[in-house]
Amino acid sequence: MVPLLLLVSSVVGLISYTNAASASFVVPCHAADEKCLLDNLERGIKIFSNGIPELGVEKLDPLHFKEVDSSSPSLKFILRDLTVTGLQSCKPLKLKRDLSKSTIVIKLECPVKLDGEYELDGQVLVLKVGGNGKIHVFLKKLVIEVTLDMVKKQKNGEEYMKVKKFTHTYELTEKSELVFEGLFQKNKVLSEAANDLIKNSPNEIVNEIGGKMFEVVITEVVKNINNMFSHVPHNQLALD
């Protein structure tokens, strides 16, 4: 879910195009100048998450997903009509370019909210759970780090950057809020047991069942980063 801003920010920190309306916040940086990169990232998060239509960047806060299947062998977990908000409030922690490895590493701390509908059936931690209804998630401090593997491509005599793949890690550094409405609607005892588990161990539950949610958010951001990269030659994105 993220996950989203992580990637967005990386792009912002590298851009130095002159014709885009939102380029005024950018100060071109060398890869070794991490303070310059981080300053650009801080200025650029809100601009990028609001979208840059002329560069193919869609609005990223809020994000909407029709369906996300986060199931595992022991759990059926489907999310529908999911809305993710909070990305433009992310705090930049690190933006680093490694020219020798052709990577960009972004680290952010984000307050992320997710709201939608869920279908749940199987085992979560030590408890058998089941139900469907509305889901509400508030990740108060989601610290996420994304590594982008970059490649360069030739087009019309110009060199362009592209994210070939990404990897990510995350950590919840404060207790999250997690609500599943409608768990075991016909069994009060099971409903209370499940809700107690969720109330007492929200971070553990997110860690166990939330991986796909982070992945789809980051994937959406990477898509928009590549949309932008396809419009702007490499020599307008970085000083080295």
UniProtKB/TrEMBL annotation:
Top-level taxon: Eukaryota
Cellular component terms per the entry's GO annotation: extracellular space
Keyword Nucleotidyltransferase: no
SMART domains associated with the record: JHBP
Stretch forming the signal peptide: 1-20
Keyword Aminoacyl-tRNA synthetase: no
Record keywords: Signal
PANTHER family reported in the protein's UniProt record: PROTEIN TAKEOUT-LIKE PROTEIN (PTHR11008), RE70318P (PTHR11008:SF41)
Protein name: Odorant-binding protein 29
Source organism of this protein record: Spodoptera exigua
Higher taxonomy: Eukaryota, Metazoa, Ecdysozoa, Arthropoda, Hexapoda
Annotated gene: OBP29
